[in-house]
Amino acid sequence: MMTQSDFSAQPTATPKGGRFFISVEKTPIFSYNFLMQKNFDQWNERKKKLNDHADRVFFHEREVWWCALGVNIGFEMDGKSKEYSRPVIVLKKYNHYSFLALPLSTSKTTNKYRIPVGPISGKEAAANLSQVRNIDSKRLIKKIGRIELDKFEEIKKRTSQINFS
Q1: What architecture is domain 39-164?
Q2: pLDDT tops 90 at residue 78
Q3: pLDDT, tens digit (0-9, with 9 covering 90-100), for 5-37
Q4: CB 161 within 8 Å of CB 74
Q5: For residue 91, is it left (φ>0), alpha (ψ between -120 and 50) or beta?
Q6: Residue 143 burial by CB count (10 A; 0-12/13-18/19+): exposed, middle or buried?
Q7: If we measure between CA atoms, which residue out of 63, 164, 162, 44 comes closest to residue 117?
Q8: What is the pLDDT of residue 44?
Q9: Helix intervals (H) in the chain
Q10: In the beta sheet, which residues pair with residue 30?
Q11: What is the mean predicted confidence (pLDDT) over 115-136?
Q12: pLDDT for position 3
């Protein structure tokens, strides 16, 4: 149960070189590039092609995939590159069509919303627990690997604690 004291620390936003750094009591929470223009039109064209032509792939829980996350609104994690993709962990497979995805980042930011997962495609990565979302399997591009079972169980537990406690 939350009390009034849980809200005593006020977040601060500090602009630095085109980015806002948001922190509470000097603990960084996230940064946001407010100078970046998002190309929603280009992403919408890519998304139409995915919807109409992408094949469904076979996937399983614990796997890490490049996934076309697209261009999103505000502080929702975007994909990168021409494919608007980023790695995700398949956290929960609902059926052949959809799953609960946990996006990964190579950002060095540390806070209670990120958990290190180890190297992914040769770079140290962290799961962003606050960005969990349902994804259609047509967005999956290429399988990268698989998370070890003990690490996966830790990620599921922390995701549940952060989002549902």
Answers
A1: Roll (2.30)
A2: no
A3: 444 455 555 555 555 555 555 555 555 555 457
A4: no
A5: alpha
A6: middle
A7: 63
A8: 64
A9: 40-53, 149-164
A10: 22
A11: 92
A12: 43
**What residues does each domain of the chain span?**
39-164
Q: Is the dihedral of CA 66, 67, 68, 73 positive or negative?
A: negative
Which residue in the block uniquely carries the two structure tokens 């996350």?
69
- Spatial neighbors of 3 by CB under 8 A, at least 6 apart, are none
More confident residue, 161 or 2: 161
- 45 CB-contact burial (10 Å; exposed 0-12 / middle 13-18 / buried 19+): exposed
Cα three-residue angle 38-40-44, rounded to 5 degrees: 150
pTM as predicted:
0.72
- Residue 160, token pair as written in the block: 């549940």
